[in-house]
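Hey, can you fold this?
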Amino acid sequence: MNISVAASFLFCTVQLYGQGISAAQSADESQIRTNRRASNAAIAAHDTSRISQYWSRDILVLTSRNVQNIGKRQNAVAFANEFKSKQDVIYVRSPDKVDLFSQAGMASENGTWIGRWKNGAEQVEVTGTYYAKWIKSGGQWLIRAEVYTPLTCVGDTYCKTFHR
């Protein structure tokens, strides 16, 4: 076999192999983004059981107020409390980037989030960035961890409660 034929074969093999990985990663990223949209819709509906479908049983969440929730149950209770205590509350997470390590069944998601609700007559809006770690379990992508960092807060009374 001459060198140019071997090089062409090697190039085609690498190209085809790379496309296979790319297609799998594309499907995984699409599933993660679809799950995020569905999670946002469940939050908008104030449906804690539907939201929790996208969490691993041992999910770890560090909220924008530095509250740590560990496990599905504790995180579901925290959401239920938010829905009861904050009028018209909604949280939307918008992914900017999803990076995959499909071989290990892990992915990271980075993006921005916004939370809005009424505090009496006052409208509150908090925005920031977030990081989520996803794991693939039983063929399903689930959130293993989330960390939220606030960057802006509008709503004088509520925003004054942030402290160092």
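Oh, and this one too while you're at it.
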Amino acid sequence: MHALRYFFSEAAASLMRGPVASALAILTIAAAIFALGVFLVANANVQRVIDRWSQSAELSVYLDDEVTADQLAGIDELTARSGLAARREYVSKPQALIRFKTDFPELAGATGTLESNPFPASFEVQLKADVRESTAAVDGLVSALTNMARVADVRYDREWLARLNTLARGGRIAATGLVALLALAAAMTVGNVVRLTAAARRDEIEIMQLVGAPLLYVRGPFVAEGILQGGLGALVALVALASVFYVVHTKFAAAYLPGVAHGGRPHRRRNPAGLHRGLRGGTPGAVIGCGSR
């Protein structure tokens, strides 16, 4: 316990002796953890939105204006016999126009200038939850519906959701690489700061070695300095994350981001995790730095 008190008291004194270099190391660690936190929050919310859209994915069958009642019955029967549909709903042209006006009230006035209703009638098919991943079965139904008479087009939400998932995975890979680079930069910065501190205290270190001080007592303060830098950087990052999250949630979430994760507040379980990442980011750099001396 006495050794730890000595290590951290010396580390704190060292931080005060070189405030500029220490601040640079702390801010570098804070930037890395801040980027990681932004990535985690953004990834959680993007995945939540994708999951919500996936649960409500629909297969829309758009019809020609000349479709007959028998053809409508045939489309409905084919969909029912497939065993894939949890719900089927026919939307007529007037109903489609009303939906458009309801969903886009700012554009509702523009429809009054049109000579005729441009929106087609359609069948909207809600797929069963247990068959949404059955790509072959759904593709077979889409193909069969496309080949039916008076079917103008068949759109399946799952197709663009799959592309969105691919884009999200690519974003996660890119963000992971960026966070890894920032973490490496933070470790290198801490290592260089510790090297500079060791060089400034070279005479003191040589005297300690001459009097037989254990290697632990020589290197301990430098490792403690890296731990302090990592912890302070993590605290700065967590405060910045909480502030940004609060501003975004209060200013924009209600109108544009209703699916913001964790009910509008940072997840408390991740706060200690961020602090732990900061400590882990500072310690390796300190070990590298003092190990080169």
